[in-house]
Amino acid sequence: MLRTPDSVRAREDFRHRDRGGAGAPGGPGPGGRFGRRGWTGPSTGRTGDRVLRATTKTAAVGVSAMVAAIGVFLAWRAVPALQRNEANFLTSHEWSTTDVAHLAFGIADLLALTVMVSVFALALAMPVSFGIAVFVTRYAPRRLAGPVAYVVDLLAAVPSVVYGLWGLLVLAPALEPVATWLNSTLGWLPLFAAGSGSVAGGGTVFTAGIVLALMIVPVITGVTREVFLQTPREHVEAALALGATRWEVVRTAVLPFGRSGFIGASMLGLGRALGETMALYMVLQTTSAAFGWSLFDSGASIASKIALGYAEFNNELQAGAYIAAGLVLFALTFVVGAGARMIAARGNGGRR
């Protein structure tokens, strides 16, 4: 990081303003401060302030209560099925819910495929999103940056069923030569070994992960772009004044400021990938073979398995088995979201 008296002073000024220091330009003014519980300054007593405070408080409490209610509902509906489960729910590879008197279901394969396809998608999406964000914010001319950002944002508006159709009918045949080459050349690695799916057919984790990557790129790119745009201008100008190239500006000023935002955005993208249903439902081929941690395995994620079992939802015990799987997915996405929140808070020095 380039450090000059001007850049250090600029950083301290920025921190002072960002903390809302009394009297700081852009700050909240005397009599108030931002703490761990947010703005703690005195209210103006105006009707608008009181209404806004009540509205925002109601929204925050309502959303929290709704999330808690969803968790309670899932647990309440899952317990009867779990009590009748004749297999280990967490370690079993079996999923047999046809006979209600002998339920035997486990999420080992479902959870493994969910995690693997999501992590694979994240590994592909992160560098692409980072490159797009850097290009749009630091390299592209203004006339080009706007359209590029708009097109990337539009990808988030495409329905997941369209991504699924595209992945099944267009991407999978196009990827066949690449998949075959990876399997024949690097098949000695477990990651690229022949799995339960057809390498040429395309209904594998490999194809599904690429489709998922394309779906989460707009999420990661959008947040990262906004974070990078917030880099203090004084930091950038100080680096440029010392003769830094554009990449050196990115490396010494933009990245240190926006790293936590980029990681937090990636965690949001991971949460999006974990819960994706329709695209995986359409791309992945179903199989009864055990998951082998290969990119050329088939199967179902937790979300797509729930979609596949829709016909059994008229029975409470059968539905309870799928709800139990959904409860695990709910907890997993909650942990990922909490992790993203912690990373973002740590990057901001612990302040909200």
Automatic annotation (TrEMBL):
Coiled coil: none annotated. It is found in: Cell membrane. Gene3D superfamilies: MetI-like (1.10.3720.10). It comes from the Bacteria. One of its GO terms (molecular function) is phosphate transmembrane transporter activity. Its main location: membrane. Residues 1-20 have a biased composition (Basic and acidic residues). Residues 21-33 have a biased composition (Gly residues). One of its GO terms (biological process) is phosphate ion transport. This is Phosphate transport system permease protein. It comes from Tomitella fengzijianii.
